[in-house]
Design a protein that fits this description.
- The chain folds into 2 domains: 1-29 and 94-204, P-loop containing nucleotide triphosphate hydrolases (Rossmann fold); 34-92, 2-Layer Sandwich (Guanylate Kinase phosphate binding domain), CATH 3.30.63.
- Helices cover 44% and strands 21% of the residues.
- The chain has 8 helices and 9 strands.
- It has helices at residues 16-26, 56-64, 83-91, 102-112, 126-136, 141-155, 170-184, 193-200; strands at 4-9, 30-32, 36-37, 52-53, 68-74, 77-82, 95-99, 116-122, 163-166.
- The strands form 2 sheets. The protein has a 5-stranded parallel β-sheet with strand order 2-7-1-8-9, with helices on both faces.
- The longest helix has 15 residues, at 141-155.
- The model has no long low-confidence stretch (mean pLDDT 93).
- The structure holds guanosine-5'-monophosphate.
- Guanosine-5'-monophosphate is lined by residues 9, 12, 35, 39, 70, 72, 74, 79-81, 99-101, 103-104.
Length: 204
């Protein structure tokens, strides 16, 4: 098997991070792509675990030196995916998981469409999303509003995804996500067909 890519997008507050944490803990051969960002680190976050936190100047230097597979400006901050570790993970036959926005998804799909499966995770409506963001208590009122507005824009791109999950219940959504992650490894394009056929037909 060759490596594959699983893109997970969805508004902050959709439950994406909790789902990803559970998925990563329960499946083998996954590689989580830790993005680089210029946004402020939150109280419950750790540098090098949730993100690589760097300055705007450093980020712009990295863009110039072609470090990123993709990068985007989201909520006024830069976010980017480093190319090198992703290529390594794919060459090792792993499933590389990206938690990226709709702009990043477009780029990954353009470059690695054949081995990419994508999932958009969201809430049942906008009110639920706002409610969850307010309860999270990690953002100011302005940031919550910015995130909700951004979610509305992101929702206009959901038809570009392979799967849409409405996260009403964490356990059920996790089960669905696990099924998708398993099947994403069975894409015909991720199988080394020549070698598989040689073995199958017993050709030396
Ligand atoms: P947050 O600030 O809530 O961690 O993330 C904000 C948004 O940025 C989320 O939609 C998340 O998926 C997106 N994001 C995180 N890392 C990347 C990245 O490397 N590239 C892109 N394009 N988006 C990212």
């Amino acid at each position: 098997m060759r490596g594959t890519i699983l893109v997970i997008s969805g508004p902050s507050g959709s439950g994406k991070s909790s789902l990803l944490k559970e998925l990563l803990a329960s499946m083998e051969n996954l590689y989580f792509s830790i993005s680089t960002t210029t946004r402020q680190m939150r109280k419950d976050e750790e540098d090098g675990v949730n993100y690589h936190f760097i300055s705007k100047e450093e980020f712009e230097k990295d863009i110039q030196s072609g470090m990123f597979l993709e990068w985007a400006k989201v909520h006024d901050n830069y976010y980017g995916t480093s190319l090198k570790p992703i290529l390594k993970a794919i060459n090792e036959g792993k499933t590389a998981i990206f938690d990226i926005d709709v702009q990043g998804h477009k780029i990954v799909r353009d470059r690695f469409g054949k081995i990419t499966t994508s999932v958009f995770i969201t809430t049942k409506d906008q009110i639920t999303l706002k409610d969850r963001l307010e309860k999270r208590d990690s953002d100011t009122k302005e940031t919550v509003n910015l995130r909700v507005n951004n979610a509305v824009t992101e929702m206009t791109c959901i038809h570009e995804y392979d799967y849409i999950l409405i996260n009403n219940d964490l356990k059920n959504t996790l089960e669905e996500l696990r099924c998708i992650a398993k099947l994403s490894r069975r894409k015909a394009s991720s199988v080394d067909i020549e070698s598989f056929f040689s073995k199958w037909a017993n050709i030396e």
